[in-house]
Each structure stands twice: as C-alpha cells, then as structure tokens.
Amino acid sequence: MTVKQPKTAPPTRIGSGGHSVSEGARNTFKLLWKSTQTELPKEFLQYAENVMFLRYSRTGDSVCIPCPLREQEAVAAIKALEGCAAAAIADAREGKYGRTISVNLERVTSFLMSTYITNIDGIDKYNPRAKERIPDTDLNQAQSNLYRRLSAGLYETRNRGEYYHIHGSLEASTTLEMIGLPAFLPGLTDYHDCIGTIEGAVRQFSGAELEKLNQKYRQAGAPVLPNEKYQKTPHGQAMASLPLFTVKPLSMDTPPVPFAEYANGPSQCLQGLRVIELCRVIAGPTIGRSLAAHGASVLKITSSQLPDVPFFQLDVNTGKHTTSLHLKNADDVEIFESLLATADVIIDGYRPGVIASLGYRPEDLAAKAAQRGRGIVYVAEDCFGGVERDAEWAGRPGWQQIADCVTGVSWEQGRFMGLEEPVIPPFPMSDYGTGCVGTVAALSGIYRRAMEGGSWICRTSLSQYDIFLLSLGTYPSEVLDQLRREHDPYFFQLRHSDSVDEVSQRALASIKYLHPTLFANHIMQSAYSEAFGGVVTWPKEPLEVEGIKIGHVRPTRPNGYDKPSWEEWEKDETLLDT
Questions:
Q1: 3-state secondary structure string, 34-48?
Q2: At 145, phi and psi to the nearest 5?
Q3: Crossing angle, helix 283-293 and helix 429-452, to 10 degrees?
Q4: Phi and psi torsions of 461, nearest 5°
Q5: Is 95 exposed, middle or buried (0-12, 13-18, 19+ CB in 10 A)?
Q6: Which residues of 128-146 are buried (b: 16+ CB within 10 A; e: fewer)?
Q7: pTM for the full predicted model
Q8: pLDDT at 14 (0 to 100)
Q9: DSSP alpha helix (H) spans, 400-476
C-alpha cells in the first residue's frame, strides 16, 4: 500500500497544520482491515498492499472540513477496502490478479458533501427554485415548513448543560405536540424565532422526561452524550465488542452462485446482479448507489404514501431505477414478490423490524431463496446498531443526527468550536460513511454467496460508523488550531441549537473559498436527466480499480419514476468514460 502523487499533478505540500491526510488514510486503512478481517473473505485482504491514496493537489492532502474528527481519512480508508472487494470480485469473474486500487482524496472530500453540492442546471439545495424542479415527496411539510423542520433539532433541557435531540422524522406533528406545541404555526417563519419557540418548549422537560415521552410516542429523539458517557450506557457497552459491520450466514442450504462472465460492454464487477433497495434519505440509498456504480441493477422501491426528503433524491438515486410499491397493498405485494424472485441482494434501511413486520424477515427471505435454489444477500443498515447483541437501543428509530448525538460526535464538534456544548457536525458525513461501510459488507456477502453458497446477512449502523470514527481520535491540536484560523469566523458563531442545514451552509461557504479545487470540473460529473428535465452535476466516484469500470450508466431520477420491472433498463455507457 502506497501513497502516490500522480505525475501530472503539481507539487504537493503537506496538509493542514503539517498533517498529511494521505498518511492518515493509510494508517486508518491498516486499522480498518485488521479490525474487520473476521468479516471479510481472505481474497479481499490480499489486496491490502495494492492500495494507493492519490492527491492531485495540495487540497487532497489537507483537512478541508471544519470538523475535529478524521472523516476524510475514515471514508478514504473504507473506500479503499471497497476497492479491495471489487478487485477480488473482478478476479473471480476474469481470473486476473494483482490489480491496482486507487482512492482519489479530493473526490472523497467532495463525496462527503455530496447532497450539498449536487445540483440541477446550477440549482443547488439552498436555491428556492429547487422546489420547482423536484417532485414534492415532503408529504407532511416536515422539510418545506421551517418551524416543522426544526422539530428535528438539538436543544437544551430544563437541566442546564443537559441537551436532547428531538426528532420529528419526516412527520413532525407528533414530536411538536409531544412537547406542548401546535403541529403548525403559520405565522412563525423566522429561523431564530422558530428555534426560540421550540427550545423554550423543550426546556420545560428534563432529559429523562423527554426519554419517557419519546418511548411513549415512539419518536426518534435521543440524549446528547459525550462519548465517555455513551460508552458507559448498557447499549454502548454492548456495542463495544461489535465490529464496524458483520457478515454472517443466514442459511447454507443453497449452492454457490458463480459470477457470470461479462457481457459485451464495459467490465463492472457486479454486472448482472439485481438489487432491491428498501430505503429512504441517505445512508441506505448510498449503499444502493455504490452497488450501482459497480454495475448492479439497483431498483429502489418506495411507497407514494411515505414521505422522503425531495432534494436528496437528486443525489442518492444516481445509477438506479426507482419505482413505487406499497407493501400493504395486495396487488403491489404480488408485484414485489415477482421482483424478489430473481433478486440477489436486498438493502433494508428502515428501523429493525419494520420490513419484517410486512412478512419479509431475513430468515423468511432465505427460505424463499432456498426454494429457488439461489441464496440471497440481506444488507441491513439502521441508526443504533446492536441487533446481533440484542442491545438496549437496537430497535429505536433514528437518523444521522441522532447517532452523532448519542455516540459523542456532536460533543466533539462543539468542543472544537470552543464551546461547552454540543453542535451538529456539517454535512451528512456519517450517513455517507455508513453507506460506504454497508457497501463493503454487501460486497463481502455477495462474494461469499458466489464462493461458498448459502444466504448471508450483513449489518451495520450509523452508530457503528461513529464509534469507528471516534476511535481514530481527533486531529492533532495544530491541525485544529489551523482549521480555526483558516475557516470563516461566521462558522464558529454557531451554537448547539443551529440546524444541520445552517451548520452545513456556513461550512460549505468557507470550504468553497478555501478549497475551490473540490468543486472543479475534474471532481464533478454532469449528465442530462430526462426524469428531472435538466443537467445534473454530482461528484465523481472516488475509487478506481485496474481493469474494471466504476461509475453509473444512468443519470438520477425521482422516486417512483420507473416501472416495477427488471427488463429493458436503459444504459449510457459513455458516462463511465467522463
């Protein structure tokens, strides 16, 4: 494994505060594969020495994001492990060995900001005109109504210095009414007034009282804990012995399913595999998007009766087909069963037990797979993790901000900013990191099915990613000092109650000024999306593996756009050469 400077790039200085991100990524990669080798085929690990971390400019070796945790290095290392998996799968298909794997560090950083820099005809997430270009799946106005959106926020409780992140999910009304507020306040439109109103209501309760209310009303809120307190909770103790992801057999009563020979066209390691994605928002759909970048046919299934964040679809639906089925409707269930009959992989991004309650427990799916004589790979991603350990919070609902708050990530962000209070980190970085972890787990299950047979279950969670991230420690003090000096002082005026959108918007403005390379043409990719009726621009894939193509052969589309079918999928293979 080496850190390499491309010959065409200008000389590179060491990054922020004398720290080299590429060296950090290399060290993180060593820790990663050692800590996860029990879950990986040996053929993946044999590629560890073939990994290169590339930087095309001084930006690539610099800490760019105003966050104290090693997000860039963690995701670069996970992407490298994904490359090892892709190389081993390609070897199994082609019989070729010794491929070079490279991870572009600038693209990793841009990937971590993906949903905030993806745009359609130059219109990004913050542009009011975005609502005109993207179908409205915000069925409950939990995003479009500012007051309701801030029902997902970090607030101080009645006890000074104690914080709780309430979360109305994609519905908002229950959480607001739970704390004594009306579901709608039409006259309340100012950002700070909304925060003041909601925090005033939260301050009527202690953290313990909010926990009881969350349990009673089945909401997604959680206490905001420093990592040292999280580790002492029963859930944190259960999670301590759990690796970053797990890959276990569901049953071994079906023969191996060898990878088919490549058809005509570009070689992609998952070409011919069919993936059903049952997910919303970012983390789970990132797994599907990554598998699509390796050539899998990924069909994202959502229900028109369930809300989703509209703008995120511009980002995470790249490379897929999307369709709408409601799995409580008998006719739709029949269609789903027909799709399931030839599926190779299921991605489940819902709270543990939700998909099972519809009659699709992993064990049931493995039994169906046994009847057809071909195993299935079930990939589960959730917030709290710990299903394997029957951990206390395993069944709780949650989102990225909840995982960041409960594990201690938000307290680290706040301390970095000079505060004695937590702050939500910028961008959905834990979402994307978890999606990358889930991709590696999925590739491990896919490989084992091909070589050993059987059906496999792969699990990870936002909390497991955060635990891994925190285990790497913060950047050295000189790096943190330089980040504080370089970034816009306006960013450091943020407080605990500022929303993830506000935090991300200020961070993005500062990063654009300091590191314009991250938004340059060689980092971004564009294609016309017929479904959205415009040119969509998004970050290129950070990963390259010798001898195969990694990228998408179809532009993004809204949820529910395509017919529920595996047949007649369009391709634009020129997108792989951009």
A1: HHHHHHCCHHHHCCH
A2: -95, 115
A3: 50
A4: -155, 160
A5: exposed
A6: eebeebbbebbebbbbebb
A7: 0.96
A8: 38
A9: 400-407, 409-416, 429-452, 462-471
